[in-house]
Amino acid sequence: MFYFTALTTLISVLFYGWLGYRVGAARGAYGIAAPAVSGHPMFERLYRVQMNTLENLPIYLAGLWMFALYVSDIGAAGLGLVWLVGRALYARAYVEDPKRRTAGFVISSAATVLLCVGAVGDICMRLALGD
Fold this sequence. Notes:
It is a single chain. With about 130 residues, the chain is mainly alpha-helical. It has 4 helices and no strands. Helix 1 packs parallel to helix 3 and helix 2 (about 40-70) packs antiparallel against helix 3 (about 75-95). The radius of gyration is 17 Å and the shape is elongated. It starts with a helix and ends with a helix.
């Protein structure tokens, strides 16, 4: 069973939902009717945080679950939590000053790379060993 990875996945999806909620609230606060995606700079920042997270979510989730399946449930969950911390730092920094977003981006990207590389490495090792 993959309880830790499942829990981390749910937390990740809820985090993304929270980002969406913030965009919706900003639409109301700044009077930006859908489908517009531009207007007040603060709305645009919140929107870009949500969209950038959406762009990264499929790669992260695929890596998370492949790592859990082939390497470790707890390890996947741990790296998933690192990804979440990175995304939260990215979101906070981007909203305050987009030029400061780099640290959060690097942290979340590193977690994604470790998940994917770890999974690929283990899969290749298993293939080579005939497992």
